[in-house]
Amino acid sequence: MVTKTESILDLYKEKPKGLFDFLSEVFSSSGATSFIYNSKAHFIISLYIKEQSGYAHFELICSDIPKNVASRGTIQSILDMGVKLGIYNKLAYPNDKRVKLYNLSKTASSEIDRFFKIFLDLSKTSNKKI
Q1: DSSP strand E in the chain: where?
Q2: How many domains does the chain have?
């Protein structure tokens, strides 16, 4: 015999995965690319590098990212740690070796593409319900 409590729990388990569930899972993950989701600064810096056709230099990143998101020191720390973890690649600019360019690793770039594909799909699905 099924009790009311069991049937309610069964409904809860069968709940379709929504936007909240997806974002909660992504921002609390501990996978290889979870560094991208550590904070809004990590996420915005990663998106910014991706948007710059994969190559952005430090001064450009600092000038375009709002100061209330991350200071120059925070940006530098995130970039340095990202390079150590293999999230970002650091390259020398061909014409001026002092200028360092940053791009996303293939894994990180794929992760951002995956994030937005799922995010947009879930957004479209949730908008149809309204």
Answers
A1: 56-57, 88-92, 100-104
A2: 1
